[in-house]
Q: What sequence folds into this?
């Protein structure tokens, strides 16, 4: 399905952002490993989270899905309650499902096979194979290139101290989840702090988990064999989804948009800093806490933006928002530099290449670098036919760019928004005056 976007008049009104993808995945996974029932409300009913549910159903976990109420009820069977799946565990397009589940599977006494769509089968899995193998699991990549399909034989795991070369919450969470099944303490040190939803939520379920800054980075540690107890979780709105509305309101003249109930966990909220650094008008209202995660409403008004530098420890706090940051940069005066973000190349698509190609075809002065992009902002953009590379974040970022471009922007394969935000285009339309 292709989508046409026209230049919009001022965007006005309120939007309720769907539940956080990272937190929704974890609610199902940890709920499955807990004793008793876990109920997650404001759950994200998107393709990625449904992939997670389907994998756990194949391992004998009952999950009741109420789409009308956006609620899932997970009937947990405890840490050792999963059963051997009769078929391959299919993770679709979801890196989070694939990498986090690998850690859980490494601790099981049964064998399993894990695979996903064409994009998942290109994404690097050595980053989880290496630590899990060190812990004692046997993981074989069918194609011998460290990618899916993966054959996982779990078993008796040892606690390790792992120094992760990348700041990745998926790697960190994978190792911590395997650590639930180890024979001693498991620690993961990452070079910069990635999102900490696993640490927060697993502690809420009853795990003994600790996180601290050390000389070599950020270290998270977990003790094995806790008793996890099912609980109620209210999933905050996803700041990664809110980012498209933040950007749209900033760049379309005369806009004022209130974005309700957005998770602002500091390990995720780098976009808020970037917006302020660029001169954007954004206010946090009604700050509170929801199930161990900070939330707020965001009031955003159209603004004159200027260029900025996005790099270093900030990168993991807005890794998924960098494509839409490139859009903001295209409409800002002056130069924006994004660096230290080579991870963008191994996401659902190569996001450096995808954004550079798309924004160039709209008339933007943008250059790809080895670890980011350089954008000379301030040119008038024009509509173009644009490949989303079937990457949800590219499709939504370019839809935002199209709102302030001359003429029509045609986004190819725009149905990929189903991965994280199935009603994205409908919600965007409610703001048109
Ligand atoms: C996620 C972590 C991030 C992010 C992804 C979701 C998670 O990946 O890009 O969309 O839920 O843990 P990395 O941790 O590999 O950077």
A:
């Amino acid at each position: 399905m292709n989508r046409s976007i026209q230049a919009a008049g001022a965007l006005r009104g309120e939007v309720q952002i769907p539940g956080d993808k990272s937190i929704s995945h974890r609610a199902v996974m940890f709920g499955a490993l807990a004793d008793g029932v876990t109920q997650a409300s404001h759950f994200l009913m998107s393709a990625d989270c449904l992939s997670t549910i389907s994998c756990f159903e194949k391992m004998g976990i009952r999950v009741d899905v109420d789409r009308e109420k956006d609620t899932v009820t997970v009937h947990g069977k405890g840490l050792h309650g999963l059963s051997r799946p009769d078929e391959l565990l299919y993770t679709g397009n979801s890196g989070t499902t694939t990498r986090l589940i690998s850690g859980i599977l490494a601790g099981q006494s049964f064998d399993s096979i894990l695979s996903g769509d064409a994009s998942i089968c290109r994404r690097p899995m050595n980053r989880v194979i290496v630590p899990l193998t060190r812990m004692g699991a046997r993981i074989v990549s069918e194609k011998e290139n460290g990618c899916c399909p993966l054959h996982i034989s779990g078993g008796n795991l040892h606690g390790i101290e792992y120094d992760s070369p990348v700041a990745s919450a998926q790697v960190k969470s994978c190792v911590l989840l395997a650590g639930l099944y180890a024979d001693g303490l498991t620690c993961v040190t990452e070079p910069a702090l990635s999102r900490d939803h696993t640490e927060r939520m697993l502690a809420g379920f009853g795990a003994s988990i600790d996180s601290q800054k050390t000389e070599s980075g950020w270290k998270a540690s977990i003790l094995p064999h806790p008793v996890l107890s099912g609980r109620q979780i209210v999933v905050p709105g996803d700041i990664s989804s809110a980012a498209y509305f933040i950007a749209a309101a900033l760049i379309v003249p005369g806009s004022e948009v209130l974005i309700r109930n957005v998770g602002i966990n500091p390990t995720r909220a780098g976009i808020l800093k970037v917006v302020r650094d660029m001169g954007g008008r954004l206010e946090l209202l009604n700050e509170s806490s929801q199930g161990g995660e900070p939330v707020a409403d965001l009031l955003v008004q159209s603004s004159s933006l200027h260029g900025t530098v996005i790099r270093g420890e900030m990168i993991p706090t807005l890794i998924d928002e960098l494509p839409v940051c490139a859009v903001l940069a295209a409409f800002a005066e002056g130069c924006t530099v994004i660096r230290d973000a080579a991870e963008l190349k191994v996401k659902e698509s190569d996001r450096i290449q995808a954004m550079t190609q798309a924004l160039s075809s709209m008339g933007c002065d943008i250059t790809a670098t080895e670890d980011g992009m350089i954008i000379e902002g301030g040119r008038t953009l024009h509509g173009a036919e644009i490949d989303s590379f079937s990457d949800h974040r590219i499709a939504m970022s370019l839809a935002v760019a199209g709102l302030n471009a001359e003429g029509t922007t045609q986004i190819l394969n725009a149905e990929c928004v189903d991965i994280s935000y199935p009603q994205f285009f409908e919600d965007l339309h409610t703001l048109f005056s």
The radius of gyration is 21 Å.
